[in-house]
Amino acid sequence: SDMGRGLSLLLLPLALLAAPARAEGGTAAAEEVQIEVLHLPEACSPKSKKGDLLNAHYDGFLASDGSKFYCSRTQNEGHPKWFVLGVGQVIKGLDIAMMNMCPGEKRKVTIPPSLAYGQQGYAQGKIPPNATLIFEIELYAVNKGPRSVEAFNQIDKDGDKKLSELEISQYLKEEFARDGKKRHPSAHDEILADIFKKNDHDGDGFISAKEYNVYQHDEL
């Protein structure tokens, strides 16, 4: 299912333009993402919100000279990107720029450095320091995100409102069986350890609903 695929996407590392974006300097607060809607479908539903799983294509350009530094269509055999909105899987400016967007919508967005790669830039992505970025985005799908209540309850087999190592281990096995990819046996343990390292903030051996980051508009 899309939701299942989304969760494995969230749990496995994503290298999708996800360098840390920190606002730097006193003027950062005043800088905003500029959004120009290029195409809006007549039926605009559902609109994207924090925690949704989005499927989109986008091209990234440097505002300074218009050169293209990123094109999702030339990566991953041309498949659109899946990512979860509003959780830092992409740079902060994209998290902002893609809110309240509907399937089929196209936007051109301008992102200031403070909401992109700041003073450091991102050499690996050919982005210089203090670069303003422009993205042309086409959104294809808006799905319930992997960190939704439904997904949490699906993993939480005993219903105790926390996820044990056994529950997540079982979930990973099911996900791996579903996607059918060949993996080294150690991959399961490494991913499981990584999930707990990144999510079990209080170190009690469980991932609570709060640690799992179920969004406020959802009720557990």
UniProtKB/TrEMBL annotation:
Keyword Calcium: yes
Entry superkingdom: Eukaryota
Top EC class for this record: isomerase
Keywords: Calcium, Endoplasmic reticulum, Glycoprotein, Isomerase, Metal-binding, Repeat, Rotamase, Signal
Plastid in keyword set: no
InterPro entries: EF-hand-dom_pair, EF_Hand_1_Ca_BS, EF_hand_dom, PPIase_dom_sf, PPIase_FKBP, PPIase_FKBP_dom
EC number annotated for this UniProt entry: 5.2.1.8
Signal peptide start and end residues: 1-23
Pfam family, one: EF-hand_7
Gene Ontology MF: a single term: peptidyl-prolyl cis-trans isomerase activity
Ranges for domain PPIase FKBP-type: 51-143
A Gene Ontology term for the protein's cellular component: endoplasmic reticulum
Domain EF-hand: start-end pairs: 143-178, 187-220
Catalytic activity: [protein]-peptidylproline (omega=180) = [protein]-peptidylproline (omega=0)
Classification via SUPFAM superfamilies: EF-hand, FKBP-like
PANTHER family documented for this protein: PEPTIDYL-PROLYL CIS-TRANS ISOMERASE FKBP7, PEPTIDYL-PROLYL CIS-TRANS ISOMERASE FKBP7/14
Identification of the protein by name: peptidylprolyl isomerase
Organism of derivation: Certhia brachydactyla (short-toed tree-creeper)
Upper lineage: Eukaryota, Metazoa, Chordata, Craniata, Vertebrata
